[in-house]
Design brief:
Blueprint: H1 7-12, E1 15-20, E2 25-36, E3 39-44, H2 49-53, E4 59-62, H3 65-72, E5 82-85, E6 88-98, E7 103-108, E8 114-118, E9 124-128, E10 133-136, H4 140-152
Parallel strand pairs: 5-10
Antiparallel strand pairs: 1-2, 1-4, 2-3, 5-6, 6-7, 7-8, 9-10
């Protein structure tokens, strides 16, 4: 599935890199495209890639840095937002970056502990713009991991 925010970039691509979750990379050329039921299907010129995809859970398409920069600017407004988890302030959004799969928020608490939280529906419950606040969910293990690491320092 091609995420909606990448469709315009993807529609112009002819050659691309497919990165499988085993870190295998293929340079491929798109020979055909089809759009059906809000899904984009592609056919590749190269042999063997379709067989390879069934061996892996995820396939990532590498997108040119210029396209990523366009996407990154969309979260600039979150810098400085307060982050709440389990009814308590976790920290402040200091920065964000794109890790090749999704945006990741860099959150820093009052003690200087850094938390890296993927900006995905699983972790982000709500963004309340008028309160400049991000509410997290499902982050018990993630927050605990960073707190344990901070105690080791």
């Amino acid at each position: 599935m091609i995420k909606p925010e990448y469709r315009s970039v993807f529609s112009e691509l002819e050659d691309l890199y497919l990165i499988f979750n085993s870190d295998r990379v293929f340079y491929v050329t798109i020979s055909e495209r089809m759009r059906k039921d809000n899904k984009t299907w592609i056919k590749l010129k190269e042999d063997g890639v379709s067989e390879e995809q069934f061996l892996h859970k995820d396939v990532v398409i590498a997108i040119d840095d210029t396209a990523i920069e366009t996407e990154e600017t969309s979260l600039n407004y979150l810098i400085g937002y307060q982050v709440i988890f389990a009814g308590e302030e976790l920290g402040i959004v200091e920065d964000f970056f794109f890790n090749g799969a999704q945006d990741v928020l860099q959150i820093v608490d009052s003690k200087g502990t850094e938390y890296l939280v993927p900006f995905v529906d699983y972790y982000i419950d709500t963004v309340i713009d008028n309160l400049r606040c991000v509410i997290l969910q499902n982050a018990v293990d993630l927050v605990a991991l960073y707190k344990v690491e901070a105690k080791k320092k």
